[in-house]
């Protein structure tokens, strides 16, 4: 047993023997009604931020609460500035929560956390138990254990907690830009993701990026009567339908030129891992009453969601859409399109190619307008990224199972912002489960997620120092 | 000069010498604010109906005002029941008018008719001067001239005036059904259409029919997040776009199976007449900022509107259509489609074939719902229909120019109802002009339209008796 192993064992033992105190702290944090989107709870957000700062200061992490035009940012730096091995880590989480309505669907008060045992599994119910109060405390409690047992953390550490994640993070970008130097570290750790399932740890290594675009076709200069003009007058809905129908082939591939530039196939290792996953394509689709995978043929449903790009139509409107009928030929029709991106796909290039593709299909006497709705590249960690290997090993040590390198179909904006503003890669490790009911009534966090989550972070911090 | 000709000449001379009195009667009728859609004007509708009945009774046409749940019907029958040659005619018009807002765009009170001369053309301004009070009085005044000069009409005559044409005619169908026997005559004359232009008379011999259909595609059982489901989940907007894009070929032809069954080409006579029309395709489209005819290639714009069927998309909606962006995959998307029909196209058959066409393109795990929004066959008079030949000759005699056999892209519901309920063909002759501003501020009727309109009907009635 090395020195390192012995220290880690002592930390893990301390986590186990002090778990009830950890639970009490989660209970305390959940009681703050820090609903960021509702101004009525502004004070509660402030109190949650103050509580976190006090906890961190209490364990020797110098922490300040920074006011913003919205809810405060909590920023801490380990007061121990001795030289440490491994990367300087910035841990990110958020202390705000989603609203609780419809309240009548909760079996108990969302802000009176209660521990309940169901089918032999203990879980704490309450808004934010999982997203993200429980998750962020897994990390804080691991740090506490290090401080209390060894008096020091294995790596240099800073922390950033925001209070607006559930309401669009309006203060985040200005704050990151204003505090680049203070916040830009070697590696971000983000704890806002799930395990693959209750037994299987995961590191989310792929997040799809996004290009959002709105396209409006204008034909005649006003709405026309389809009796008087039907036939010779260009119909913008028909033009738009032709364009949209041209964007995919029959195999589900996207036909925007050069769309697949920068899309890589999975590595054989990840492919093997995914093929072995107990992910049931049929059950996944059946849950929403579907059965025929609509993505690119040749890829599993899990791959279609996590590793393949898409071009989706999120909204369409044109002409008369009320009750009954109106024989109108609309002047305009529009569609909102979003492309989910993977690998090295270039959002700007894709937007440009999409626009050119559309323009070429618009008749000479009609016009098209485009408006941009966001662009973010995909996030993907190289399998050779050292922290990824270290994190994966730590998780395997804790859970006894290989950590899955997961994809996530959606995006986590903070990951893109850490990259673009702070030039910092993010490693996403979380212990939430798909059945945690985040954003829904009866949100919960399994005590195993919390307990083994704390232990996992203790191991990850040790591994990063190796 | 035959006896007939001499009688007609006397009637025409009487019309000319009494034209000022005819104008006074139009003035009187326009002053009733018979806006049928606004309950505030219920009394004014009643008064207009009563006035018409009194006028008709005054010239020996026994007329009654029939109450309905809405505004009254005016029904008259010539009290002279001696045997007459030619068809028993039912003349149809409406005494109600459109609302007048925006009032500030009128140069004078819409219900204080004023005669104004512009560029040497005299016209009467006022709501209803053209649509349909001026038009219906052209016929009534022709009858008056016959009665005053000859004491008798050339043909057996009944009249029907309704007061709800501008508000959807809710009482008309029940009234026609309840009075089939009284109203079913040999031929309906309808005076709610235009001339080709100010010099050129016209008989509208083709009205397009309509099939209205709403199609809703359902994919997943709820709206989905495009991050979590984008790729494998069927997108109903994409499915709908594929369907709509499949409904026309690149030549603008409709691809619903058997769609063109019952569509005839124009007769050489009508084709020659239309080819010679001073109808400017470019100007017609330029008026609405278009320039490329979007209908079936191989047909002029005038033919595309009047003699060719269409399949138009009148409204489409699905997913998020508000401001900004939402990365949603909708559960449902829907479209309102209307087909304009010509010739002998069968509305029911077309609906059936459209539905089958759509169903075949819906993926196995998605569903489609259809809802019906009306069906009416096209109206077309055979070139050999005797009253058409007689009417055309009468109009030529009056205007010195061949009457154009016009098409009209829209439908006039009464024509379909006369056919389906009363088994009666309609001949549509009117003296309105495209610049009459019907339904708009500053509606007007040229005094030439009114004067020569009265003379035209005198000639048509004589011709029908031949």
Counting DSSP E segments of at least 2 residues, the number of strands of chain A comes to 18
The N- and C-terminal alpha carbons of chain A lie at a distance of 15 Å
Poorly predicted tracts of residues of chain A = none
Largest sheet of chain A: 9 strands, mixed
Q: State the helix count of chain A.
A: 15
Which topology of the largest domain in chain A does CATH recognise? Aminopeptidase
**Assigned CATH class of the largest domain in chain A:** Alpha Beta
* Number of spatially distinct domains of chain A: 2
Structural classification of chain A: alpha+beta
Oligomer: homodimer
Mean of the pLDDT scores of chain A?
95
Strand content of chain A: 15-25%
Relevant CATH superfamily of the largest domain in chain A: Zn peptidases
Keywords for this structure?
homodimer, 466 residues, alpha+beta, Aminopeptidase, Alpha-Beta Plaits, four-stranded antiparallel β-sheet, elongated, hydrolase (chains A, B), Peptidase_M20_dimer (chains A, B), Dipeptidase (chains A, B), peptidase activity (chains A, B), metal-binding (chains A, B)
